[in-house]
Amino acid sequence: CVIFLCAESNLSYQVVAAVDINTTANQVYTHNIPNTALLNKTIEGITLEEFNKLSFDMILMSPPCQPFTRIGLQRDLDDPRTKSFLHIVDLLPRLSKAPLYILLENVKGFEKSAAREYLVKTLRECQYTVQEMMVSPTHVSSHQHSSVYHRWLEKS
């Protein structure tokens, strides 16, 4: 979604990589955004060296929401679906070049999670400025009505 917003607003950007193991999602991505590196693997499968080679300025991420949904089991860090998120958070302090910006989107409920607390702690240690907000899609001209948790992180 963010990439399409960037395209619509004429912002200058270059996607350095997309990551997914779903072959259908990868076909759709390749069709819509050709000539971009597509890593057909899990996030946890990307090594520190591979992340460093990408040399990115921004991370846009939307970790799996199931561990945090208000109507789900709310297993938080005990849910195996948080592995990809934790892998990125664990790598942040070790990157040779920290990204200038990190944009995270998740469901309402994430803001009360242990995963969020771990992220905030790590980001503060990495000297990021953190801004958090709950955004309803209706605020950005969408027809959906559920609120979404957004975190905008900027390297100080």
UniProtKB/TrEMBL annotation:
Q: Does the keyword Methyltransferase apply?
A: yes
- Could you tell me the Gene Ontology terms of the biological process aspect for this record? methylation
Where does the record locate the signal sequence feature?
none
Enumerate the transmembrane spans.
none
Q: Which Pfam families match?
A: DNA_methylase (PF00145)
Q: Where is the active site?
A: C65
User: Which controlled-vocabulary keywords does the entry list?
Assistant: Methyltransferase, S-adenosyl-L-methionine, Transferase
| Keyword S-adenosyl-L-methionine found | yes
Checking SUPFAM superfamilies in the record gives:
S-adenosyl-L-methionine-dependent methyltransferases
Its GO CC terms are: nucleus
InterPro entries from the UniProt entry: C5-MTase, C5_MeTfrase, SAM-dependent_MTases_sf
> Member of which family?
Belongs to the class I-like SAM-binding methyltransferase superfamily. C5-methyltransferase family.
**Protein name listed in UniProt:** tRNA (Cytosine-5-)-methyltransferase
Q: Which organism is it from?
A: Takifugu flavidus (sansaifugu)
